[in-house]
């Protein structure tokens, strides 16, 4: 009887399933119970077991998040195989996948319920500015490799798809309090309400403050430091417009300040405000499951001397339908309007419009084999309006009248050889578009009249980076050991790598009336090969474990000189660790839970101005002990960086060091 109920719930969920990662309107809880494992709609639009998707995906559940003891998303993500995290400061971490991580990393697509939350001006994600609490996250999907054709614009090294609890299906209510060393204090509240029979609403709000890590470097001055402080609020409402149509509206706000490392690897105090509004209509029609969605994001970011005002509006329409019993097709069209005021010179605006049709086809050949093919064409039309400061060598807005057309492709085959053995092969071609800042949004003139001094500016002729990836995966279930294991082998090539401006490389020489100009530039190609080993399981009564290690080898192929890669901050061969490994062990009963996490990262290099500086291999230990009281109250003690009082994890002598932090937490759910 229970299974029949779950099957009915799953069928209802499928009827409302999203056409892409852009809508998450299925009853994930019922489907997880039905399939006894996490479920996703992100890859093909239809609900799938996590083990059957045609991409390399790891799903972090809400239970994993609660037991992690982590207080931020980068810490949670660092425990996923193949994920790189640079911890620059108490309030800033940059996340990459299988190498190529950097300050303000621009290669990762981050979504919350299908809305992009990476910041378009630099193309990076400010993790402290995300307007949600950990307690309202249902699951986090981590996808490795370029997946632009499936997930959308700029998914070149991977995707982090954050799915929150749906107020229609999930009655989520929580209060979380935290205090600890480093003057750390945190509070968040999540409340779900029903407004009649057809409207469900979840609201949340939270705030956090902590002290910055102590300054141990003469290169980091007091003016560059700000104790991390954040506030956020979020609303998520679902309304039934008919028996087969629903509307979901989401709004958010965040405001924070912190010390950050900017793209040139220099520290700066940083203030950021974001707000967003999104509406999605999903309807089950005779033509298929149709979704119409629109959202607008606003950014107001302030770094000393520069204020970035960025607004992006995205509209999309998609149709998911079946052809026969074994073919699923998704057709899509997306429109993007992205605008940035120039800074520090504020007399102009850089913008582009993108029109992107896409198609996805999934073929269930037989019960053992499924094939997926997806393609997306992005046509980006660039434009500049406004004036130029006197002394700039490029003084015609017509230089920015340019179109960029590129195609993304994803191919995947999943073969279930036996009940215990699964093979997966994928090919991907992704496109990393230049950011608005790189295309001309950054323009910093000197205080002196030309030709004395130099100008820092964007480059309207910058090419997109093209990333191609090949991967083979073998997954093995080991039921006799209550375990599973996987082996992954992958190769990747990046063409036309985009590099920073450098004041040691003149892009446009000075004339009698213009300054020397330093611009962003394409620097050549880069290749990466690697292997990933992972295993997890259970034993005894209440014990669970997991272990993984990822090896990557990068070979940069500069267009000019190897020295230019350092100057332009794209020497990925030197700055990517070859190994990153994780080990987790936990135990739980009805009241107690104990979890420990060990992470090891091999040596690599970072930047100190125009020089490389070494970062020693390091090992971290984190853990949590919690006890469940009555009435849904849980007390816990969490700790990070427990092995050392201070430790370099992103930069060498010129950077701040991560500190040991211990916190007491109190949470209640109902």
What fraction, in percent, of the residue positions are helical? under 10%
Round the Cα radius of gyration to an integer and report it: 24 Å
Number of strands: 41
- Mean of residue pLDDT values: 92
How many H/I helices?
Answer: 8
Shape: globular
Q: Which percent band covers the strand fraction?
A: over 45%
Oligomer: single chain
The biggest sheet amounts to: 22 strands, antiparallel, barrel
Poorly predicted runs are 1-24
> Which structural class best describes the helix and strand composition?
mainly beta
> What is the rounded distance between the termini?
27 Å
Structure, briefly:
With 670 residues, this protein is mainly beta. It contains eight helices and 41 strands.
Task: Lay out the secondary structure.
Blueprint: H1 2-15, H2 28-35, E1 39-40, E2 48-49, E3 56-61, H3 62-68, H4 73-77, E4 83-89, E5 92-97, E6 108-112, E7 115-116, E8 137-144, H5 148-151, E9 158-164, E10 174-180, E11 184-195, E12 199-209, E13 229-242, E14 245-261, E15 267-285, E16 288-303, E17 306-323, E18 327-341, E19 343-344, E20 348-366, E21 369-386, E22 402-416, E23 421-432, H6 436-441, E24 442-444, E25 454-457, E26 465-478, E27 483-495, E28 498-499, E29 516-519, E30 521-522, E31 524-539, E32 543-558, H7 562-567, H8 572-575, E33 579-588, E34 592-601, E35 604-608, E36 611-615, E37 618-628, E38 633-640, E39 646-647, E40 658-659, E41 661-669
Parallel strand pairs: 6-9, 19-24, 25-29
Antiparallel strand pairs: 1-2, 3-8, 4-5, 6-7, 8-9, 10-11, 10-41, 11-12, 12-13, 13-14, 14-15, 15-16, 16-17, 17-18, 18-20, 20-21, 21-22, 22-23, 23-26, 24-25, 26-27, 27-31, 28-30, 31-32, 32-33, 33-34, 34-37, 35-36, 37-38, 38-41, 39-40
């Amino acid at each position: 009887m229970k299974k029949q109920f779950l099957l009915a719930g799953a069928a209802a969920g499928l009827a409302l399933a999203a056409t892409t990662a852009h809508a998450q309107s299925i009853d994930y809880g019922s489907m997880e119970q039905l399939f006894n494992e996490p479920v996703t709609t992100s890859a093909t639009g239809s609900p799938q077991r996590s083990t059957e998707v045609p991409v390399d995906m790891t799903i972090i559940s809400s239970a994993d998040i609660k037991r992690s003891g982590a207080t931020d998303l980068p810490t949670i993500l660092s425990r996923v195989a193949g994920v790189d995290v640079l911890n620059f400061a108490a309030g800033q971490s940059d996340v990459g996948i299988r190498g190529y991580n950097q300050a303000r990393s621009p290669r990762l697509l981050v979504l919350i319920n299908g809305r992009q939350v990476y910041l378009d001006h630099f193309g990076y994600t400010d993790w402290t500015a995300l307007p949600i609490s950990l307690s309202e996250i249902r699951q986090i999907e981590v996808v490795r490799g370029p997946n632009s054709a499936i997930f959308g614009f700029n998914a070149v090294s991977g995707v982090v798809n954050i799915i929150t609890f749906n107020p229609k299906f999930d009655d989520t209510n929580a209060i979380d309090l935290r205090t600890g060393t480093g003057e750390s204090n945190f509070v968040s509240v999540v409340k779900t309400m029903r407004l009649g029979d057809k409207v469900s609403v979840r609201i949340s709000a939270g705030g956090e403050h902590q002290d910055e890590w102590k300054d141990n470097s003469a290169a980091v001055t007091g003016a560059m430091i700000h104790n991390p402080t954040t506030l956020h609020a979020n609303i998520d409402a679902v309304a039934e417009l008919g028996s087969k149509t629903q509307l979901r509206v989401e709004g958010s706000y965040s405001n924070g300040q912190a010390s950050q490392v900017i793209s040139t690897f220099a520290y700066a105090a940083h203030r950021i405000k974001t707000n967003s509004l999104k509406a999605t209509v999903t309807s089950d029609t005779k033509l298929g499951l149709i979704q119409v969605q629109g959202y607008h994001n606003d950014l107001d970011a302030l770094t000393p001397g520069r204020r970035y005002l960025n607004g992006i509006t995205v509209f999309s329409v998609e149709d998911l339908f079946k052809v026969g019993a074994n073919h699923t097709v998704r057709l899509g069209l997306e429109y993007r309007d992205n605008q940035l005021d120039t800074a520090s010179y504020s007399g102009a605006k850089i913008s582009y419009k993108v029109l992107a049709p896409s198609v996805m086809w999934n073929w269930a050949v037989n019960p053992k084999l499924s094939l997926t093919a997806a393609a997306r064409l992005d046509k980006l039309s660039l434009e500049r309006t406004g004036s130029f400061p006197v002394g700039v060598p490029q003084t015609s807005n017509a230089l920015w009248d340019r179109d960029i057309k590129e195609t993304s492709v994803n191919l995947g085959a999943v073969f279930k050889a036996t009940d215990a053995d699964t093979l997966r092969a994928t090919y991907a071609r992704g496109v990393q578009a230049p950011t608005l800042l790189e295309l001309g949004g950054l323009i910093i003139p000197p205080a002196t009249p030309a030709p004395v001094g130099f100008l820092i500016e964007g480059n309207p002729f910058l090419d997109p980076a093209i990333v191609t990836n090949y991967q083979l995966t073998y997954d093995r279930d080991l039921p006799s050991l209550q375990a599973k294991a996987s082996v992954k082998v992958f190769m990747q090539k990046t063409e036309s790598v985009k590099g920073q401006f450098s004041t040691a490389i003149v892009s446009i020489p000075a004339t009698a009336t213009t300054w020397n100009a330093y611009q962003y530039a394409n620097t050549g190609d880069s290749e990466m090969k690697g292997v990933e080993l992972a295993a997890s399981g259970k034993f005894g009564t209440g014990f669970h474990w997991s272990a993984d290690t990822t090896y990557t080898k990068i070979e940069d192929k500069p267009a000019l000189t190897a020295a230019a890669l350092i100057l332009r901050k794209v020497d990925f061969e030197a700055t990517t660790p070859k190994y990153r490994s994780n080990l987790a062990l936990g135990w739980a009963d009805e009241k107690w839970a104990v979890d420990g996490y060990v992470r090891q990262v091999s040596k690599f290099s970072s930047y100190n101005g125009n020089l490389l500086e070494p970062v020693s291999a390091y090992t971290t230990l984190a853990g949590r002990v919690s006890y469940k009281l009555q009435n849904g109250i849980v007390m816990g003690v969490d700790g990070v960086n427990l092995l050392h009082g201070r430790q370099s994890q992103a930069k060498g002598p010129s950077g701040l060091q991560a500190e040991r932090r211990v916190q007491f937490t109190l949470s209640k759910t109902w």
